[in-house]
Structures are given as structure tokens and as C-alpha cells.
Amino acid sequence: MDTKIKFDSYAGQCDKNRFIAALRHQPVDRVPNFEVLIEDMHVEKILGRYAGNILAIGGDPAKDYL
Asked: CB under 8 Å to 13, separation ≥6 — which residues?
């Protein structure tokens, strides 16, 4: 399946107050723009190509021993 996904860039500023409010389960005007981790397989699906190891420069020990 060769499906391309189009994402529009977010041009706004990061708002840490919005993020903190969401963590506190308080109402926010929109979902905070925040990512802690994006797995390699998801990056490959979005880009449509191999992107290398994005988790760590020296490799990901958790993946090396699986």
C-alpha cells in the first residue's frame, strides 16, 4: 500500500501554559503541539522512506537486544 499522507505545518508558537493546563486536565482551546517520541516505523510511514535510527545517535539499546 503506497499511501502518501499530507501534513500541514504548524506556524504557531509553542505554548507551555496550554501544555501544562492539558496535563492538569484543565480546558484548553486546542490540543497542545508536543511529541516525546516518534517510532522509526511511524516516521517511515509518514516520509515514505527509511529515515534511519531517529531514537538515538549511537543506537537504541532497547532495540539492539530484542
From this structure: none
Chunk the chain into consecutive blocks of 10 residues (it has 66) and report each block's average pLDDT, rounded to whole numbers: 70 76 88 73 80 64 50
Domain count, the chain: 1
Range of the domain at 36: 16-64
Contacts of 55 (CB under 8 A, 6+ apart): 37, 39, 40, 63
Identify whether 4 is part of a domain.
Answer: no
Give the pTM: 0.38
